Every structure is written in structure tokens, then in C-alpha cells.
Amino acid sequence: MNISIGNDHAGPEYKKAIVAMLEAKGHQITNYGTDSFDAVDYPDLAHPVAKDVEEGKADFGIVICGSGNGIAMTVNKHQKARAALCWMKEIAALARLHNDANVISIPARYTSVPQAVEMVETFLNTEFEGGRHQNRVNKIACQ
């Protein structure tokens, strides 16, 4: 899979662990995140991830910031991106099963690195259920 990742200053350690896991599994990673703990603006890192997903350059996106909220809000401004704020693997699974989320948003200040890696694995390994959920997903994007 092709996966784009972006993170602000709250997430370099998370990104490093997630990218290591993904590369070990043979995935191709496009990294828009920072490796520094110096403050950066999360929209500058979220928009490129969302654009890659929107244009089909990435199968999935991963975004990381302190709360996971601002970066998810930014991604969700893109019509074909559906970012889900996840704080446990069960939420990550439901985001894929029921919402066909294509971007996972991780709150670095409220999850551990191992928990984040587990959420990403769950997210990527869970298929959209479709069926009754498809009609709802079709109504998410603005007309």
C-alpha cells in the first residue's frame, strides 16, 4: 500500500514507530511530517496527506497532532478525505467498518506509541463493511 503520513511537533516519536512498522510490512510511505519538536502548524502537514488520499496517490493517510482534533478537521476539509479521530483500536476498527475512513488521526498527547502503532495496524487491516453504511458514507461530502 501507499500511505501518506503527516505530524506536527507532538508526533515525531509516533511517526518514527509507525513508519518503521509500515516499512517492515513492505508499505510505501510518503512523509510530510516533522522530525522536530519545534512548533509547526499542523495544517501545513495535514493538507498534503489529504490531497494524496483525495487524488489516489495514497491508499490511506495517517495524521498525528497533540489532540488529533485540529489535524483531523483540516483533513476533513477535503471532499474525498474522511479522517477519523481514534484513541483506541476499537474506534479505529469502527471508523473503517462503518465510516470507510481513509485517514486515521492520532492524538499523541492522549495515547502511547505502542497504542498508536496498534491502532494503525487495526485501521489498515479492517475492510469497510459497506451495505447499510454505504448510503451514509455517500452523504458525508458536501454537495
What does this structure look like?
- The protein is 44% helix and 17% strand.
- The chain is α/β, with parallel strands linked by helices.
- Helix 4 links the parallel strand 4 and strand 5 (103-107).
- The model has no long low-confidence stretch (mean pLDDT 97).
Descriptors:
5 strands, alpha/beta, 143 residues, single chain, 44% helix, 17% strand, five-stranded parallel sheet
Calculate Rg over CA atoms. 14 Å
- pLDDT averaged residue by residue: 97
Number of strands: 5
Write the element-wise H/E pattern from the N-terminal end onward. EHEHEHEHEHH
- Tell me what portion of residues adopts beta-strand conformation: 15-25%
**C-alpha termini separation:** 30 Å
Which blocks of ≥5 consecutive residues have pLDDT under 50? none
Biggest β-sheet, characterized? 5 strands, parallel
Produce a short descriptive summary.
By secondary structure, this protein is an alpha/beta fold. It contains six helices and five strands.
